[in-house]
Design a protein that fits this description.
Elements (H helix, E strand, L loop, with lengths): L4 E5 L9 E6 L3 E2 L5 E9 L5 E8 L2 E6 L7 E3 L16 E5 L12 E9 L6 E10 L8 E3 L4 E2 L4 E7 L8 E6 L2 E2 L5 E4 L14 E7 L9 E9 L9 E9 L1 H8 L5 H32 L1
Parallel strand pairs: 3-10, 12-19
Antiparallel strand pairs: 1-10, 2-4, 4-8, 5-6, 5-9, 6-7, 9-10, 11-13, 13-17, 14-15, 14-18, 16-17, 18-19
Length: about 290
């Protein structure tokens, strides 16, 4: 969870003074990102900027001083790499582990300090925490589905995500449409293995299958896993298929017929059959009398 602190230092001034309006630090960073930009939005209140200083866990990592011959001043911090081309008076951009420069340690508390020029020398400061996600290493596991079902039978399935941080959010999708959450149930997963934050998420599904679920004689059930709070996260999916039992195949493909129409169509057949039987009986009776 993101936490922010705000403190103002320096002499008070008339009117609106220097103020940091917003500190934009992702509460959870995805290690698959190539870069992570931390942004500091501020209002100088009509004063000139002296410096913007970024720190991590109380240690300076980057300073921007517009009045200096070298405005951008990165610090050599173990486990942290800064993209100078995308760092300035408004943001500092960190390189992610995917860049391959070495071990990267992004988790920590990041602070932004903004200072104005003389004579006011006002300063404002804010900080926020950032943790690092642990993406699942595999697609979710979907269990419990049978190869085929009868109309009216109950489908029961369970989905389990891979180990991750934060815990994955699971969703069932039937024939391309998200299943009503009322038909699902959160199940107990595995959490905090060996003292780590990673855990699994489990979700159960119980629903009665109707004729319309088997369009073309089959259905598809997908379990989708996403990481909450991660921008542009790509869902992981597992899909299973089931067919309509052979005894119901013809029923699923034929359109429903009304009872009145079926009776009307059947009546001439029954009438014809009855008249034929009566005719045969009468013919046999006459032959018997003649003999």
């Amino acid at each position: 969870m993101e936490k922010t602190k705000n403190k103002k230092m320096g002499r008070a001034s008339k009117g609106v003074g220097l103020e940091i309006r917003k500190l934009d630090v992702p509460s959870i960073a995805d290690p698959r990102w190539e870069t992570i930009s931390l942004k500091c939005e501020y209002d100088l209140g009509g004063k000139e900027l002296y410096s913007v200083t970024w720190n991590k866990d109380g240690q300076e990592i980057f300073r921007f001083m517009p009045g200096s011959a070298t405005p951008k001043r990165p610090q050599n911090i173990s486990g942290l790499y800064i993209d100078l081309n995308r760092s300035d008076h408004r943001q500092v951009t960190l390189l992610g582990p995917s860049i391959g420069k070495g071990k990267v340690d992004l988790a920590g508390s990041y602070g932004c300090e903004v200072s104005s020029e003389a004579p006011s020398f006002e300063t404002d400061y804010r900080e926020a925490n950032m943790s690092v996600a642990v993406p699942p290493q595999s697609s979710p596991i979907l269990e419990g589905m049978r190869p085929s079902y009868e109309i009216g039978e109950i489908l029961q399935a369970e989905c389990t995500s891979g180990l991750s941080y934060p815990p994955a959010v699971l969703t069932f999708i039937l024939n391309g449409k998200e299943v009503n959450r009322a038909l699902t149930k959160d199940l107990r997963g595995i959490g905090n293995l060996d003292g780590k934050l990673v855990s699994t998420t489990r979700l159960g599904l119980t629903m009665r299958l109707e004729r319309h679920h088997f369009s073309g004689g089959s259905l598809s059930l997908t379990c989708q896993s996403t990481l909450p709070g991660i921008a542009n996260d790509q869902p992981l999916r597992t899909i299973e298929f089931a067919t309509l039992a052979a005894s119901n195949q013809r029923l699923a493909q034929e359109p429903p017929k009304s009872g009145s129409r079926s009776n009307i169509e059947l009546y001439p057949i029954l009438t014809c059959w009855t008249m034929t039987v009566i005719h045969v009986i009468r013919y046999d009776s006459l032959r018997f009398l003649r003999v």
